[in-house]
Amino acid sequence: MNFRAKAVRTVAAAGLALVMTTSVAFASIGTATVAADNLRLRSAANTSSSTVTMAPRGSTVTVEEDAGNGWYKVTYGSQTGYMSGEWLTVSLSNGTVIPAAQGTASTSKKSGLVTASVLNVRSGAGTGYAKVGSLKSGAVVNILADLGNGWYQIDSGYVSAEYITLVDGNYSAASSLGASAANLAKSLVGSRYGYGGTGPRTFDCSGLVYYIYKQMGHPISRSASSQYYNNGYFVSTSAMQPGDLIFFFDRRYDSSGGTLPVTHVGIYVGNGQFVHASSPSTGVKYDSIYGYFAPYIVGAKRIG
Length: 304
Prior knowledge:
There is one protein chain. By secondary structure, the chain is α+β, with helices and mostly antiparallel strands. It has 3 domains: about 30-100, SH3 Domains (SH3 type barrels), CATH 2.30.30; about 110-165, SH3 Domains (SH3 type barrels), CATH 2.30.30; about 175-300, endopeptidase domain like (from Nostoc punctiforme) (endopeptidase fold (from Nostoc punctiforme), Alpha-Beta Complex). It has helices at about 1-25, 175-185, 205-215, 225-230; strands at about 30-35, 40, 50-55, 60-70, 70-75, 80-85, 90, 95-100, 110-115, 120, 130-135, 140-145, 150-155, 155-160, 165, 190-195, 200-205, 235, 245-250, 265-270, 275-280, 285-290, 295-300. The strands form 6 sheets. Strands 6-5-4-1-7-8 form a 6-stranded antiparallel beta sheet, with no helix packed on it. Helix 2 (about 175-185) packs across helix 3 (about 205-215). The longest helix is centred in the N-terminal third of the chain and has 23 residues, at about 1-25. The N and C termini lie far apart (about 100 Å).
């Protein structure tokens, strides 16, 4: 009698265990490839939770469910936890592919403008990978993923993010003139400032942009005010593209008594930065359009 009772309890316990196991089982919804060097598998779907283990780049994980907010519940090896979709290229069972860094349901597209004269496309995210093609300055590419290590994945392979300027998804290719001008401006960073200088060794502010466009075979006026009045066409400062001239007015540097339209000019190079011949002490340098200079911006013009 005692044996029978014990056996019933054992079966019941086994049945309970079976029910519990069934209740937490789920079918996977796809697989994913890790696009970071060492991606953390976490105990919960947030960056504050503890790390269960780490998966190296290229690892394949089983995607159990979309946990929301850009996170997935996944199984890696024998361990289950959560990974950020920002670093996963997810292949769902229904055939949908969600590139890394685009979230769980993002339909927005990112485009990039090539600012190097020639940009190598490689088979992997690093200079050690084989070259599979090249892109010329001014080319626009679709960015499938930002790998977070200074490289982008594009349709044809991988490119260094250093030579790509992000633009919105509706962007039409900027002229190669502007892209090439911006690229030349970057190469002149570190040059000396010299009042009246038009290059190639020393520059003042308008002399720098005058020199750049002269080298492009598209000469413009010499002074900042003449460039503002006579060259190119005005564009919104919120829609600037690499190569656009950006103008400033600071009354502290206006010796005309208020008759000059501008007191300074630089060349926009993308990502909220412009290059300009700043001062004798700093020479040609990068600066942000959002910092100190923001209140002094009076307009932008596109050449070509």
